[in-house]
Structure formats: C-alpha cells, structure tokens
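Morning run. Coffee first, then this:
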Amino acid sequence: MKDDKLYVELMLSSSNPHVSFLALSHTIRKEGSIDPETRKEALTKLVDAYEEICRNQHLQQYA
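And here it is:
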C-alpha cells in the first residue's frame, strides 16, 4: 500500500471516518516524542486523506 493512502485506508476501516479523523489528529497533535516537522507532515497527510474521503462521499451522494 502506498504511504499516501495509509490514512485513507485507516479512516475508512473504522465505522465512522469522521470520528477517526478527529481521534487521529488529536493523537498526532498530542504525541510528544515526534519533532514538529514530522508532526506537520503527518497532519498534512491526514488532512489530505480526510479531504479525499469527503470528496468521494460527496461524489457518491450525487451519483
């Protein structure tokens, strides 16, 4: 699996991707053992994945 799709798959595997997004973002923000640049990269990938999920759900809704 490509690294950029990991967060998409992780959130879609939960019963509620929106709650999963909130929990993951909170965990990444509160994790003290990672440097700020790594945290920023992880949050950026997470937000990108969440936007992809929302876009796909929106398209499915109007298909």
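Residues 3-61 form one domain. Good start to the day.
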